[in-house]
Inverse folding.
């Protein structure tokens, strides 16, 4: 019931925003089309400004993953995470979670294809995919777009949130799905 | 911190590839990732234009300021360094709402708009402000009510109950959010006590 309501909201949210905001602006005597174009103009410069930061991050992540270094890290961490109830298959996904959104989606999809969506691994992969954001993408893109070079404690906070999200997923999945 | 992580990712990848005897993988991965980054950004241009355009209308009509006013009681506690009526507050709220509703492509432009507003308050410094760190902690750990993508994937593999993961997701993200916000609060206090802010 709640879920179907949420699904309706997510389907209607964007069309409604696109209708209501310009309508509201029109009644507030905003030259809506001109305002839209003025805003849209910033889209190009902002998107282009992100390129160097995103390229830097994506190159490092891609080399890390393609070389097999990520698998070694997973192998190294495996004895530790097996003790707390994480299947070895899930570990690469946990490592990639803060690094690459599309990478994680691909891995979760692959795990569900092999083990099925109702398996423990499939469910765990689903929960992890739906938990927390791609921290490094958000940090590089958001800070990069306004020229921030010193991130201060934002990296540690974001990574701690990711580790917490992983541990909490692990706990809840072991509780509900084992 | 980020310099070290970046170097570790790159260097460990190259060393491992060399040991495994497939060094050519590195070249391929690096080049295609560089091209991929440009493609992601170009795909972003259109989406950014759409939402920044809509947001400009909302801004000029006073909608963002009104929204900022509405959530002021919560926001002044989370962002004590931002003036209560500042447009950054409205942009932050729009970004978080988009995240909660799972509207990923609207969230990024709104978030970048919020960062621009915060950077004005930061007087163009190259160092992140406290408000920026809080905003990103909130943003990356924010609850998504409808993880639409993964529900779709589960459905495509014939899951009998594709949405059973929503509850656990909300539990796990909420936990992450509480920890992130507490840690951010602690860092903020600590940096004020310290010599340098």
């Amino acid at each position: 019931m709640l879920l179907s309501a949420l699904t309706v909201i997510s389907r209607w949210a964007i069309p409604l925003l696109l209708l209501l905001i310009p309508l509201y602006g029109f009644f507030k005597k905003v030259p809506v089309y001109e305002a839209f174009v003025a805003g849209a103009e910033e889209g190009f410069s902002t998107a282009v400004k992100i390129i160097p930061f995103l390229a830097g991050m994506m190159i490092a992540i891609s080399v890390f993953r393609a070389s097999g270094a990520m698998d070694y890290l997973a192998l190294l961490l495996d004895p530790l995470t097996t003790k707390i109830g994480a299947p070895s298959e899930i570990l690469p996904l946990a490592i990639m979670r803060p690094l690459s959104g599309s990478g994680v989606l691909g891995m979760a999809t692959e795990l569900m294809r092999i083990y099925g969506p109702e398996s423990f691994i499939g469910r765990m992969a689903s929960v992890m995919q739906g938990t927390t954001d791609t921290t490094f993408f958000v940090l590089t893109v958001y800070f990069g777009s306004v020229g921030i070079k010193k991130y201060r404690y934002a990296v540690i906070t974001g990574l701690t949130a990711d580790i917490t999200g992983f541990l909490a997923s692990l706990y809840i999945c072991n509780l509900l799905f084992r | 911190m980020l310099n070290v992580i970046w170097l570790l990712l790159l260097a460990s990848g190259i060393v491992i590839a060399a040991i495994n005897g497939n060094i050519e993988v590195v070249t391929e991965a690096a080049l295609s990732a560089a091209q991929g980054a440009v493609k992601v950004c170009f795909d972003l241009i259109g989406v950014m234009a759409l939402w920044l355009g809509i947001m400009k209308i909302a801004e000029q009509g006073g909608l963002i300021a009104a929204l900022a006013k509405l959530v002021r009681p919560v926001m002044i506690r989370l962002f004590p360094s931002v003036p209560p009526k500042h447009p950054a507050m409205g942009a932050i709220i729009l970004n978080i709402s988009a995240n909660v509703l799972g509207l990923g492509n609207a969230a990024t432009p709104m978030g970048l708009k919020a960062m621009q507003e915060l950077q004005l308050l930061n007087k163009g410094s190259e160092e992140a402000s406290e408000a920026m760190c809080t905003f990103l902690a909130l943003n990356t750990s924010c609850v998504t009510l409808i993880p639409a993508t993964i529900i779709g994937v589960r459905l495509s593999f014939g899951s009998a109950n594709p949405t059973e993961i929503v509850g656990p997701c909300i539990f796990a993200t909420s936990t992450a959010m509480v920890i992130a916000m507490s840690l951010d609060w602690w860092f903020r206090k600590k940096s004020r006590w310290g010599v340098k802010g």
DSSP finds nine helices and no strands in chain B. The longest helix of chain B spans residues 24-60. Chain B has two domains: 1-50, 62-193.
